Amino acid sequence: MDSLNPDHPPLIETRALPRVWKFWGTALWGLLIFVAMFVGQIGAIVLLVVLRGLPANLSSVELVGHEPEALALSVIMGLPATLLAVWLAIRTKKASFVDYLALYWPSWRQLLFGAAGLILLVLAWETISRALGREATPGFMTDLLKSGREKGAAMLLLVAFSVAAPMSEEFLARGFLFRGWSASFLRVSGAIILSSLVWTIVHLQYDMYFLAEVFTIGLWFGYMRYRANSLWLTVVLHALNNMAAVVLTMWLGV
Predict the structure, then answer these.
(1) Using CA of residue 33, residue 34, residue 39, residue 41, what is the dihedral sign?
(2) Largest Cα–Cα distance in the chain?
(3) 13, 68, 110, 251: which could join 148 in a potential S-S bond, CB 3.0 to 4.6 Å?
(4) Whole-angstrom Cα distance, residue 85 to residue 81?
């Protein structure tokens, strides 16, 4: 083939656009991913009930589920279930897992900027809480963490809330949901808001005040996910935020 012959132009390779679930596909798969996370968490509790020889009923599940060690294992077991469901959703689209979720390491500048913004946001909520005479940490979380320390489950709780929970929640919210919704009619701003709202709903064990705090932190995470094009950045920020809360509550009594 002669590249100078107009009757036989040279072949030009074009890169195919990545396959992405749009609004409804992302929403439906997101629901399935959340169900998978829930099943993984409940499955861990049910397994503990069976191993202890307790009656296989709701009362036994509730009894075991309130134990710090069991709750920590539940959160940890939710992670592989979440990752498997996310992988399946992306694999169905025949897309790259890394590219779809933006699993790229951020620069130190991006990490420091994200951390600085998170610290300012947390301090602002801390100031508001003190002005209103409210606790900075939900009471039930304080009781859980202190109980976990007394019962020897401190490190397990630290791993659950500082590693497993951030990864599960970020892969769902700022990973899968943001990726699909930002490519839909919602665009980036709508995807940040809606994924933050979904992330807030995951924390319905909190009251409205703490839910508002969660939502604003979610907006910051969403912005940083977009700005840095890195899911690992929000995973690290989320992990640092949770780790600070666990350490301050469990060991320093703050």
Answers:
(1) positive
(2) 81
(3) 68
(4) 6
Within 10 Å of residue 97's Cβ, how many Cβ atoms? 13
Which domain does 190 fall in, by range? 23-250
For residue 184, is it within any domain?
yes
Six-digit token string for 177: 């949901």
Q: What's at 158, amino acid-wise?
A: L
- Rounded to 5, what percent of the chain is helix, strand, coil? 75, 0, 25
d(CA 51, CA 72): 17
Count of C-beta atoms within a 10 Å radius of residue 254: 12
Number of structural domains found in the chain: 1
Both tokens assigned to 155: 């490190």
Residue 74 lies in a domain: yes
Instruction: Provide the whole-model pTM.
Output: 0.89
* Residues 89 and 208: beta-carbon distance below 8 Å: no
200, 214 in Cβ contact below 8 A?
yes
Q: What is the pLDDT of residue 7?
A: 57
Residue 214 lies in a domain: yes
Q: How many CB atoms lie within 10 A of CB 28?
A: 12
Q: How is residue 75 written in tokens?
A: 């959160």
Structural domain includes residue 238: yes
CB 71 within 8 A of CB 205: no
For residue 152 the two structure tokens come to 């020897």
pLDDT tens column, 70-119? 999 999 999 999 999 999 999 999 999 999 999 999 999 999 999 999 99
DSSP state of 67: S
